[in-house]
Design goal:
The complex is a heterodimer. By secondary structure, chain A is mostly helical. Chain A is built from 10 helices and no strands. Chain A has helices at 18-53, 58-67, 71-82, 87-108, 117-126, 129-138, 150-174, 185-197, 204-219, 227-250. The longest helix of chain A has 36 residues, at 18-53. The two termini of chain A are 29 Å apart. By secondary structure, chain B is mostly helical. Helix content of chain B is 72%, strand content 0%. Chain B is built from 2 helices and no strands. In chain B, 32% of the residues are buried. Classes of the chains: A mainly alpha, B mainly alpha. The A-B interface holds A 56-57, 60, 63-64, 67-70, 73-74, 77, 81, 84, 87, 90-91, 94-95, 98-99, 101-102, 105-110, 112-113, 117, 120-121, 123-125, 127-128, 141, 205, 209, 237-238, 240-241, 244-245 and B 1, 3, 5-26, 28-29, 31, 33, 35-40.
């Protein structure tokens, strides 16, 4: 299990030039992301296969994976495309499924307020699920005013994650008819995500938050528009906050 | 769905990604989370 490192262990600008610091941060981002790449690749592969098997042409599937770059939203939209659901309903579903990114970006976004809007938009597009798991490990909220190394770390995580996803997805699109579903590749993706998430349970409050989110996620699995995901995240956060407050009061 | 409808759906899904992922990045000062929620 990897030790959680805060920015205090990050090389400081006193010893490295800004460009070298960002390069090193990029390499660190890649190193942090490396254990998850096989899982991301597997998820991409499954999504690529699913797109083709839902009747999309190769160009449409490639367009979807390169532009949308959101596995859960894509997977939610595919059965609706097959069922000829209204486009507005598909949009509403994608927004609901993606609402977790709004919560996530409240954590990541404030670190980049010093950049211009084009760059912030670019970063926002790449801030997928993995970012919330990895970026705050190196740069917690206490480091908001310290800009050094953040951009490099963000790009290191984002680009390696994007590349693994796209390569997997494109191979899935190309090889949709060659890879049997019985191989259970999607489950490998889930296991890889678990390997990242478990080390994030750093104290009792986090453990309670994860437990509550897990239970609500399972109970709410069949809710429409994947509302269970949003409910689970919200309930998990609230539970973690309550336990954190209670433990501090007790001290 | 026709080809054009599928392409519109892809555009709409892209819009959903951009809206949800970029909104807070674009307008970071529009809504501030309480520090306790941010920490959670």
């Amino acid at each position: 299990m990897e030790k959680i490192e805060s920015s205090s262990s990050f090389p400081q600008s006193a010893s490295l030039s800004p460009s070298k610091l960002e390069k090193q941060a990029f390499a660190d981002g890649f190193r942090l992301t490396a254990p998850t790449l096989a899982g991301t690749f597997a998820w991409g592969l499954v999504t690529g296969m699913a797109m083709l098997k839902s009747g999309l042409t190769i160009s449409q599937a490639l367009g979807m994976t390169l532009l949308v770059f959101a596995g859960s939203a894509q997977m939610s939209a595919l059965p609706m495309i097959v069922a000829h659901a209204p486009i507005l309903m598909i949009f509403a579903t994608a927004i609901m499924v993606n609402l977790r990114f709004v919560i996530f970006s409240f954590v990541i976004g404030p670190h980049f307020t010093h950049l211009n809007w084009r760059k912030r938009m670019w970063l926002g597009y790449f801030s997928a699920d993995l970012m919330i798991a990895l970026f705050p490990r190196r740069f917690p909220s206490e480091t908001l005013r310290q800009p050094q190394g953040k951009l490099g770390l963000f790009y290191g995580i984002a680009y390696s994650n994007w590349l693994a996803w796209q390569v997997g997805s494109i191979l899935g699109i190309i090889g949709a008819s060659q890879i049997p579903q019985s191989w259970g590749i999607g489950f490998a993706g889930t296991l890889a995500l678990l390997a990242i998430l478990v080390p994030l349970i750093i104290n009792n409050a986090a453990a309670v938050g994860v437990a509550v989110a897990g239970v609500i996620g399972i109970v709410g699995y069949h809710l429409p528009y994947k509302l269970g995901v949003l409910l689970a995240i919200t309930a998990g956060m609230m539970a973690a906050m309550m336990v954190d407050t209670h433990l501090k009061d007790a001290q | 769905m026709s080809n054009i409808e599928i392409w519109i759906t892809i555009a709409v899904l892209t819009l959903a990604t951009v809206i949800t992922r970029c909104a807070v990045f674009m307008f970071p000062n529009a809504v501030k989370l309480p520090p306790k929620v941010q920490h959670a």
